[in-house]
Amino acid sequence: MMAPDTIPFEARLEARAEQVEALLRRLLDDRLLPGEIARPQQLFSAMRHGVLNGGKRLRPFLVLESAALFEADAEAALRVAAALECVHCYSLIHDDLPAMDDDDLRRGQPTVHKAFDEASAILAGDSLLTYAFDILADTATALPAERKLALVLGLARAAGPGGMAGGQALDLEAERSSPDEAGIIRLQAMKTGALIRYACEAGAILAGAQEEDRERLAEFGSAIGLAFQLADDLLDLTADAETMGKATGKDAAAGKATLAALHGIDWTRAQLRGLVAQAHALLEPYGERADLLRQAASFIAERSK
């Protein structure tokens, strides 16, 4: 078997995704947890449809590799990664609703409200968001209390009104009145960047790393979070729905302002190169140990779907 540092990046990404997928399947099965009364079949079917449908599991990957950078407990890191993926998938389920982005397709499959109904999609999203904090707080996530508290607080701030949910609110406002460039950057840092920033910082929190390391990994996360959104905006302009597994061209059709639409494709590609360089520079103190995170930054900026 090849050592982890010799495995091609995309194979490593896939292997990490399989680890997370296996844990999510166990977490979302029919077995009751202490204190639970029942697991309604329709609700859990909708939750599983929204979570166990493929995807690169990039945010969990960032948790796991940033945790490995500081030699954090691997099982605890896997549970934190799964909790974060529950939050991410809840956001996708709700974003796809008719009252939000009104999408019929996600990862090449019908969205939850299409496969089930709107009420089931709302409840599935609500349940996944709540369950994420259950996973973090559970004794099975074997971490000192102060680290758990930092992880819970960090995820709440990243997902809440000052982070992802607030970013979605700004995104909906942007359909009515186009924000300026600073407004677009703020919106994207909240809606997309906040969870990616958290994913990177979470690894340092898991390990009880120094504050300087936490800040450095958070800054790395901010850089690749912006790169992720720029690449997404670029793909919305240039890719087709079959390649992406979801509708494309919707931002332009809705009149939403994006940096790619504002400045053009060449500018966007130049910005992506700059953000990758910035991300790589932030990892310099960690030497070769951070190679997988460097590759992740490049992958995010250069992805084709």
Automatic annotation (TrEMBL):
InterPro entries attached to this UniProt entry: Isoprenoid_synthase_dom_sf, Polyprenyl_synt, Polyprenyl_synt_CS, Prenyl_diphosphate_synthase
Keyword Magnesium appears in the UniProt entry: yes
Entry GO terms, CC: cytoplasm
Pfam families for this protein: polyprenyl_synt
Gene Ontology MF terms in the entry: metal ion binding; prenyltransferase activity
Alphabetical keyword list: Isoprene biosynthesis, Magnesium, Metal-binding, Transferase
GO biological process, one term: terpenoid biosynthetic process
Known cofactor(s): Mg(2+)
Gene3D superfamilies in alphabetical order: Farnesyl Diphosphate Synthase
Assigned protein family: Belongs to the FPP/GGPP synthase family.
Protein name, per record: Probable farnesyl diphosphate synthase
Annotated organism of origin: Pseudaminobacter soli (ex Li et al. 2025)
